[in-house]
Design brief:
alpha/beta; two-stranded parallel sheet; 7 strands; 23% helix; globular
Length: 176
């Protein structure tokens, strides 16, 4: 498993741990769990944190979850657990054409917020990265409450409500 919270892909960056900008966490409200948090962090993203030492993929998730997973091939493992859990918000690259997006986002999420511009993630000391993330990002709401929070967050971007009936029909064979 990769270290910490989000292995963001950018050829200019040589770090594997990238923190969510705190202003995003602040407007999304209190989370109960961050299952892929860095071991050492300058701010909390939830009331409870699992780090690489805890292996958040193997632990039981509870409450409202904040998920900024390792990016790349690791993303799908974390999104599968988020779909099964059904209560939280995930932050990933907005690569809408990928198998991961078609399996764990389009048929399963309640809403999406495509963020305007590219994020500048933070280093584990809290300082802002020199370069942007290298791709556009999307916040994904799982659960109606999280959809409403995204819609009212005030974050700059395009909010899209997904149709729950379509999602439920598409999910029927998802994990078989």
């Amino acid at each position: 498993m990769t270290a910490g919270m989000s292995s963001h892909q950018n050829t200019k960056m040589k770090n594997d741990e990238w923190l969510t900008p705190p202003e995003i966490i602040k407007v999304l409200g209190q989370f109960d769990l961050d299952p892929c948090s860095p071991i050492k962090r300058p701010w909390d993203t939830a009331l409870n944190h699992y780090s690489v030492i805890d292996d958040g993929l193997s632990k039981k998730w509870f409450g409202r979850v904040w998920l900024n997973p390792p990016y790349g091939e690791e993303t799908k493992k974390w999104l599968e657990l988020m779909v099964q859990h059904g209560d939280g918000i995930a932050l990933i690259f907005a690569r809408t054409e990928t198998k991961t997006f078609f399996k764990y986002v389009w048929p399963c999420a309640d809403a999406l917020l495509f963020l305007r511009g590219r994020l500048f993630f933070r280093y584990i000391d809290g300082s802002i990265a020199k370069n942007n993330s290298g791709a556009p990002s999307v916040l994904i709401a799982y659960g109606q409450r999280n959809s409403e929070i995204l819609m009212g967050s005030g974050l700059d971007g395009k909010f899209i409500k997904l149709t729950p009936e379509e999602n439920q029909q598409q999910q029927l064979g998802l994990f078989n």
